[in-house]
Amino acid sequence: MNTKKFTMLSVTSALAFTLAACGDEDTSNQTVQEQLDYEIIGIDAGTGVMASTDVAIETYDLDFNVLSSSDAAMTSELGSRYAEEEPIVVTAWTPHWKFIEYDLKFLDDPELAFGESEDIHTVVHPSVEEEHPSAFEVLDRFYWTEEDMGYVQGLLYEGTDDDEAAIDWITDNRDVVDEWVAGVEPVDGDEFLLASGAWDSERSSTAVVKHVLEEIGYEVSVNNLEVTIMWQAVAQGDAHAHVAAWLPHTHAAQYESFQDDVLDLGPNLEGARIGLAVPTYMDIDSIDDLRED
Ligand code: PBE
Long-range contacts for 157-164 (Cβ within 8 Å, ≥24 apart)? Predict the structure, then answer.
């Protein structure tokens, strides 16, 4: 019984191997552009990384289409092609768990279509300073590292819910959080609305800030929105704050539109980056390599 099962499995893998080998033969004469089907796997339309991808296509004169999808659809496509060692180009950013889970490289971007290294800032509606001074103080102090965010993202990736993941990080980093709340006047159930986005980076930072504000007595709600709407919500005072401003490059357009109506409290995380990424098993190194000769 066991032997038979084993034999059948071997036959199956041999078949899979032959098919894979045929597949390789078929694509060996193809250019990298053909192997990629002239496609860049993108995320939500309206994000900064998608806007910069359009700029890259223009700047590097690429004959590529960008498929808009979502972070989840993009990473699932990446996962299945990665398993087969098939070529793929994705819109990418760090901090993001995909760089931990897979061996990926950012393609060089000599024309800086994706800008350089940047920071994630905290942005509040100007009224927050007077109307919610305790929240303002905590938001102003909120600062963590890529490693901290990576820890929370790792928990989200494993399926832990946002609140539990945030509490886990806070418990482990009590001394850091104590500094954010030291001497801050507690409040009694004041409502505070955080705008955010559905990406793991935003879910992580927003969940942590939510819990810290709740510790000092706020009643916090979180609203996940599209990037421009997230900025607009804070500018119009529909939300009090967001901790997801990728600057100076990714959200340059939103900053330009809303800078007069928001207060930028500076970086809460330094060293973020966006770009196009490919698995390290691919032979290309630069966005330039996607251009046809
Ligand atoms: N991101 C993650 C978003 C914001 C957060 C970098 C993908 C973007 O606007 O591109």
Answer: 157/97, 157/101, 157/200, 162/203, 162/204, 162/206, 162/207, 163/207, 163/210, 163/211
**What does the pLDDT read at residue 11?**
34
Q: What is the DSSP string of 131-155?
A: H-HHHHHHHHH----HHHHHHHHHH
**Token pair listed for 272:** 């973020």
Tell me how far the alpha carbon of residue 275 lies from the centroid of ligand 1, in angstroms.
Answer: 11
What pLDDT does residue 142 have? 98
Amino acid at 184: V
- Structure tokens that stand for 216 in this block: 């000092």
Structure token pair of residue 130: 């007077």
Please tell me the distance between residue 49's alpha carbon and the centre of ligand 1 in angstroms: 6
- CA–centroid distance, 47 to ligand 1, in Å, is 6
Predicted local distance difference test score (pLDDT) of residue 131: 98
Where exactly are the structural domains of the chain?
5-115+274-290, 118-272
Q: pTM for this one?
A: 0.89
Name the CATH architecture for the domain at 5-115+274-290.
3-Layer(aba) Sandwich (3.40)
Rounded to the nearest angstrom, the distance between the alpha carbon of 93 and the centre of ligand 1 is: 7
Query: What are the tens digits of pLDDT across the range 138-164?
Result: 999 999 999 999 999 999 999 999 999
Q: pLDDT for 194-212, tens place per residue?
A: 999 999 999 999 999 999 9
Q: What percent of the chain has pLDDT over 90?
A: 88
- Ligand 1 pocket, residues with Cβ under 6 angstroms: 47-49, 93, 197, 199, 201-202, 227, 244, 246, 250, 274
So what CATH class is 118-272? alpha beta
196 in Cβ contact with 268 (< 8 Å): no
User: Average per-residue pLDDT in the chain?
Assistant: 91
Atom of ligand 1 nearest to the CA of 47: 9
